[in-house]
Design a protein that fits this description.
6 helices; 150 residues; 3-stranded antiparallel sheet; mainly alpha
Length: 150
């Protein structure tokens, strides 16, 4: 059986390490850039939905959101109908920084797909989306307390 998950893991860790180094000058560390971009893309998102989108637990998301808020990248605002619900919005600083992050993401995609034809790039994207959906099914089940059968 092909060990694609090992390669995917190496790719993900390498890019995450690069991003953590490059984004340090913006006071973004430990993957906070992922959260910031999702908030910019989805203004008004609630923390729980964002955690689900990124596939992390609530505590991890809460720590990242707290740091982003403390560093002025985002702000929490109460929902107009239910004051207990806090929605997340990017600040001007957050939007400006997200623009830089998206440029880095675009560059990293170009580097990763260097030498691939357009058709190959589309194929790998399609296949990785299928892999992601397969893994998400297990993630959802495990998060709901189910055990996977090995």
């Amino acid at each position: 059986m092909t060990e694609i998950l090992r390669d995917i893991g190496v790719i993900a860790r390498a890019l995450d390490s690069i991003a953590n180094i490059e984004f340090k000058e913006y006071d973004l560390t430990r993957g906070q850039y992922l959260y910031l971009v999702r908030i910019v893309e989805n203004p008004g998102i609630i923390q729980e939905k964002m955690a689900e989108m990124i596939k992390v637990d609530r505590t991890t998301a809460a720590r990242a959101v707290k740091k982003l808020e403390g560093n002025g990248f985002i702000e929490k605002m109460p929902d107009l109908e239910n004051k207990k619900i806090k929605k997340l919005y990017p600040t001007k600083k957050g939007k400006e920084t997200a623009t830089i992050i998206l440029k880095e993401n675009s560059y990293s995609n170009k580097v990763a797909l260097k030498g691939f034809s357009k058709e190959e790039s589309e194929t790998i994207s399609f296949l990785l989306e299928r892999v992601r959906k397969n893994v998400e099914t297990d993630w959802d089940a495990v998060k709901k307390g189910h055990k996977r059968q090995y």
